[in-house]
């Protein structure tokens, strides 16, 4: 009973703050609202007895919001909380599409005769998950690891001010530019 | 708390995120919309796992969803940084021709 009440309270918080992200008039408030929404969902996952994933979700999202704050300070050059904004396009189409998708998904969720639960969760789920990703499902984690490395490389290449692709061209066949200073500005 | 309740909440989060991803112009706000959508998928996957088949292998799928969220965030910030550096903007409408 208490878990049910907690779930619905968290559901209202998660959806309301999720909506607030696109309603409040500053990016800083939107970031805080998104963080609250994520924390509410993380706690809901904890209520579903998935302690490890719930906690990881909360920690990851708090860090992500911190990165967003750093991004805003870096590129906006002012206190974003003080800057009202409404930068949208195609609002009516977006509302119609999202309402349609919600009706479709919620209708499916309510109308489909879901099967009965098969099996029961392990006593120590975190331990069982650890065994799983270090055993039978190791290939999945190995692929995720490779994707993470590729993401780091791609992120650095995209975000760097000047890389070897700037100096030698996309095919890396250009002659070295005549830098005024080795490793200096772009030609 | 039932599977249907979890899925309806997840659908609401997904729909709100979809609205943001479609309607916002600032890249960071579009990313926020995409993250809300992935958050809905994560909640739905957690609900499916708990109410239908609570075997440890199902949890690996949730880890993959979390990894997808991380990749989306990292690449989104990198592209936003690139766009800001090259065009001095953080709006999607200014990035319709990425080759220029």
UniProtKB/TrEMBL annotation, chain A:
Belongs to the complex I subunit 6 family. It is a multi-pass membrane protein. Keywords: Cell membrane, Membrane, NAD, Quinone, Transmembrane, Transmembrane helix. It comes from Brevibacterium sandarakinum. One of its GO terms (molecular function) is NADH dehydrogenase (ubiquinone) activity. Its EC number is 7.1.1.-. InterPro entries: NADH_UbQ/plastoQ_OxRdtase_su6, Nuo/plastoQ_OxRdtase_6_NuoJ. It holds the Pfam family Oxidored_q3. GO terms for cellular component: plasma membrane. It is found in: Cell membrane. NDH-1 shuttles electrons from NADH, via FMN and iron-sulfur (Fe-S) centers, to quinones in the respiratory chain. Couples the redox reaction to proton translocation (for every two electrons transferred, four hydrogen ions are translocated across the cytoplasmic membrane), and thus conserves the redox energy in a proton gradient. This is NADH-quinone oxidoreductase subunit J. It catalyses: a quinone + NADH + 5 H(+)(in) = a quinol + NAD(+) + 4 H(+)(out). The chain crosses the membrane at residues 6-24, 31-47, 53-73, 94-114, 138-159.
UniProtKB/TrEMBL annotation, chain B:
Pfam families: Oxidored_q2 (PF00420). InterPro entries: NADH_UbQ_OxRdtase_chain4L/K, NUOK/Mnh_C1-like. The chain crosses the membrane at residues 6-22, 34-52, 58-83. GO terms for molecular function: NADH dehydrogenase (quinone) (non-electrogenic) activity; quinone binding. It is a multi-pass membrane protein. It catalyses: a quinone + NADH + 5 H(+)(in) = a quinol + NAD(+) + 4 H(+)(out). Its EC number is 7.1.1.-. Belongs to the complex I subunit 4L family. The lineage of its organism: Bacteria, Bacillati, Actinomycetota, Actinomycetes, Micrococcales. It comes from Brevibacterium sandarakinum. GO terms for biological process: ATP synthesis coupled electron transport. This is NADH-quinone oxidoreductase subunit K. Keywords: Cell membrane, Membrane, NAD, Quinone, Translocase, Transmembrane, Transmembrane helix, Transport. Its main location: membrane. NDH-1 is composed of 14 different subunits. Subunits NuoA, H, J, K, L, M, N constitute the membrane sector of the complex. It comes from the Bacteria. It is found in: Cell membrane; Membrane. GO terms for cellular component: plasma membrane. It is an enzyme of class 7 (translocase). NDH-1 shuttles electrons from NADH, via FMN and iron-sulfur (Fe-S) centers, to quinones in the respiratory chain. The immediate electron acceptor for the enzyme in this species is believed to be a menaquinone. Couples the redox reaction to proton translocation (for every two electrons transferred, four hydrogen ions are translocated across the cytoplasmic membrane), and thus conserves the redox energy in a proton gradient.
């Amino acid at each position: 009973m208490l878990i049910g009440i907690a779930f619905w309270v968290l559901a209202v918080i998660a959806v309301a703050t999720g909506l607030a992200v696109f309603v409040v008039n500053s990016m800083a408030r939107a970031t805080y609202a998104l963080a609250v929404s994520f924390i509410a969902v993380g706690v809901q996952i904890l209520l579903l007895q998935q302690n490890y994933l719930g906690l990881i979700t909360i920690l990851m999202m708090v860090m992500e919001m911190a990165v967003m704050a750093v991004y805003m300070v870096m590129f906006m050059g002012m206190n974003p909380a003080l800057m009202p904004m409404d930068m949208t396009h195609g609002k009516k189409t977006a509302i119609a599409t999202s309402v349609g998708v919600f009706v479709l998904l919620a209708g499916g969720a309510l109308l489909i005769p879901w099967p009965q639960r098969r099996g029961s969760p392990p006593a120590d789920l975190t331990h069982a998950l650890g065994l799983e990703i270090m055993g039978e499902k190791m290939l999945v984690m190995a692929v995720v690891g490779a994707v993470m490395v590729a993401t780091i490389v791609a992120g650095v290449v995209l975000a760097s001010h000047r890389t070897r692709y700037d100096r030698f061209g996309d095919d890396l066949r250009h002659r070295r530019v005549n830098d005024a200073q080795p490793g200096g500005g772009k030609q | 708390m039932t599977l249907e309740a979890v899925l309806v909440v997840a659908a609401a989060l997904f729909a709100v995120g979809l609205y943001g991803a479609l309607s916002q112009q600032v890249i960071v706000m579009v990313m926020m919309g995409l993250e809300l959508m992935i958050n809905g998928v994560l909640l739905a996957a957690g609900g499916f796992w708990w109410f239908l088949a609570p075997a440890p292998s199902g949890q690996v799928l949730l880890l993959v969803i979390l990894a997808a969220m991380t990749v989306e965030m990292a690449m989104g910030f990198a592209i936003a940084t690139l766009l800001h550096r090259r065009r001095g903007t953080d709006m999607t409408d200014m990035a319709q021709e990425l080759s220029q």
